[in-house]
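Q: My labmate handed me this sequence with no annotations at all. I'd like to see what the chain might look like in three dimensions before we decide whether it's worth expressing. Could you predict it?
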Amino acid sequence: MTRFMTDSREGGHALLMRAARAAACALALALTGCMYPYPVQTTVPASFDRSFAAAAGAMRDEGLAISVEDRASGTIVGQVGGGTVTGSIRQQADGSVRVQFDANGPRDPALLDRISRSYNTRMGR
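A: Here is what I predict for the chain of 125 residues:
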């Protein structure tokens, strides 16, 4: 049983307000324990298939016309604005996946940065 002690100068209203505030705080704390307001990052290594799909999607997001999408070799080639972008997806010996984008002659110097950002977004990073 909970008992509230009051100073003789406080009235019943002040006691009631304190109890209401305490109950509201307890409820707020209980509810925040059940919510996930931020994305949860996992430490599980990305799979080759997921990385390959995200790389191809990121290149498409930036308007590249994909001419080669060879999952077996881990190569994606796309063209935009007079240039070529190549995505290389490689499974490493430790199980991780390495993704690299290279550009040859695009007129847009920020293209690789945008592709990389799009890739990271698709991977949930």
